[in-house]
Amino acid sequence: MVQIAMTIAGSDNSGGAGIQADIKTFQELGVFGTSALTAVTAQNTQGVHAIQSIDPEIIAAQIEAIFTDFPVHAVKTGMLFSSEIIQVVAEQLKNKEIPLVIDPVMIAKGGASLLREEAIEALKKELLPIATVVTPNIPEAEVLTGLQIQNNADIEKAAKHILALGAKSVVIKGGHRVDVPDAEDLFMSAAGEKFYVRTPWIDTKDTHGTGCTYAAALTAFLAEGKKQADAVISAKNFIHAAIENGLDIGSGHGPTNHWA
Ligand code: PLP
């Protein structure tokens, strides 16, 4: 039987990030992709030019339409934009006994805000407690915890803080770090697992959509039945290959390659 994954996220019409990245990644990993669109963005490799969020009722209807018809095996959330949207998504997902990956998307590389500041508390209160894995980068982990992160001790403190908010596990992605030579991510779970997963640093500007692609790969591996820690390692290898084969298209940050 085919495994089914769902992404609840914003559209990136340039095809590198957002719902498009998620569905391409699901397809590449052999999982059937479904979606609920939370926002439409107008963007290209130079940045995000406009955002229109979707009516929360329509978001709920999209999620319901899939869940009442398909056996969904794993879900991920990406750009959620507002506290109203977060509330509707949390309400829809709270009693589902399937893996839930929360990618706490906040700010695009070009600086555009994909999550209103007023929505941060809702994200912490409504969604993190039902998350199977939360996947912040360092700036997102700092916002979620109020901590300043400079080294491994800080990262581990932040991970514990995120687990204390109710998530089953967390991956803090180290792509923004300058104190270590590799791309080094920390996995920590409420069950007591803790390890760093490292891949060599790749010096490239073509990294648009790395966060979405990483979380989508993780969701696909969880949909296939992998345990959280194994799914993180597989997703890390996938994103390394996707960045290594990044596409130099457009005049700005080219996209991560989803069929790497
Ligand atoms: N657009 C959408 C809809 C996204 O969800 C994201 C990231 O999550 C981005 C753009 C930004 O991608 P990046 O910061 O990798 O350029």
From TrEMBL:
Protein's name according to its UniProt entry: Hydroxymethylpyrimidine/phosphomethylpyrimidine kinase
Family the UniProt entry places it in: Belongs to the ThiD family.
UniProt cross-references to Pfam families, sorted A to Z: Phos_pyr_kin
Entry EC number(s): 2.7.1.49, 2.7.4.7
Alphabetical list of InterPro entries matching this protein: HMP/HMP-P_kinase_dom, PM/HMP-P_kinase-1, Ribokinase-like
Gene Ontology annotations of biological process type: thiamine biosynthetic process
Alphabetical keyword list: ATP-binding, Kinase, Nucleotide-binding, Thiamine biosynthesis, Transferase
Class of the enzyme per the UniProt entry, highest EC level: transferase
SUPFAM superfamilies, alphabetized: Ribokinase-like
Entry GO CC: cytosol
Domain Pyridoxamine kinase/Phosphomethylpyrimidine kinase: 12-257
Species: Sporosarcina ureilytica
Taxonomic classification: Bacteria, Bacillati, Bacillota, Bacilli, Bacillales
